[in-house]
Write a structure and sequence with these properties.
Length: about 280
Amino acid sequence: MILVTGASGYVGSRAVRQLAERGAAVTAVGRDEARLRKVIPEGIPLVIADYDDPASLDRAFAHARKLIFVASDGFAEDMIRQHAHVIDAANRSPIAQTVFTSIVDVEDGSPFYFAPVYRDAERRLKSARFSSVILRCGLYSDFILQHWLRETVISLPLADARIAPISRDDVAAAAVHAVLGATDETWQLTGAASYSMAEVASAATRALGKPHSYQACAPEVYFERLAAGVDDPWPEAFSTLCASIREGRYAATSSHFSQEDFESFLKRSTQGQSLSRV
Ligand SMILES: NC(=O)c1ccc[n+]([C@@H]2O[C@H](COP(=O)([O-])OP(=O)(O)OC[C@H]3O[C@@H](n4cnc5c(N)ncnc54)[C@H](OP(=O)(O)O)[C@@H]3O)[C@@H](O)[C@H]2O)c1
């Protein structure tokens, strides 16, 4: 039996459906039955478990052999605790293999708010009883579309740094591939091409049918804009992400799992296929 956590979300629900289509015995794990049922087809079993409730994780993992573990989100200290709960429960279970959605930006010197969170999870997985495939994901194409292409004038403190985005659909497909075949490996999941923000704006102009442009702004200006518009930890998370991008930490490309280039992804979004949370 393969379990998939985060199954009420985008990556998890796509992974569940793809596994079911391939005839695998799969169970969708989430913390809210109604949210799960909205996106998981009838006939696929559901299990309710919360990353903050170790007993619920023990029950969910009791008969599993494999696990796709979708990372948590939110405050760093909560994520570290929740990831530790999941990995500890997997260690107590019969699970022999996990696949974890990490990030490319886990190095010690990274300024990114979430770098220590994923570094901690990877360290715990590497010393776990079971084997793990670590999916080091680049910036999601979906993130750029939802957060940075809302305005046609893109104002970000990214100078001329480059990013190599990958779509969440490609991440879900890679997770399925990994859980069906690989064991102890670390995969870089980024786009096959990198873009400056000026190139992102040009791609958006062509794909979304509205003129977009990019203007570099100062880091403090971006932080102040975030602080006025979003709750903690997002001002710190998004502005340190930009600092990390400026250092070139999101520029590396890899073609192995990237099926869709960024502009094609944007075009697809105009057909309503990639904008929703799930
Ligand atoms: N590389 C990037 O650019 C990037 C950008 C954004 C996010 N991410 C990471 O990628 C992950 C997957 O992306 P996504 O788009 O699939 O996210 P998503 O649609 O927001 O789904 C996240 C899933 O995690 C579940 N979850 C959160 N906290 C939980 C908890 N305490 N216990 C059990 N389940 C919990 C959510 O359940 P509920 O439905 O119950 O909330 C949801 O099913 C995110 O969680 C985040 O860590 C990466």
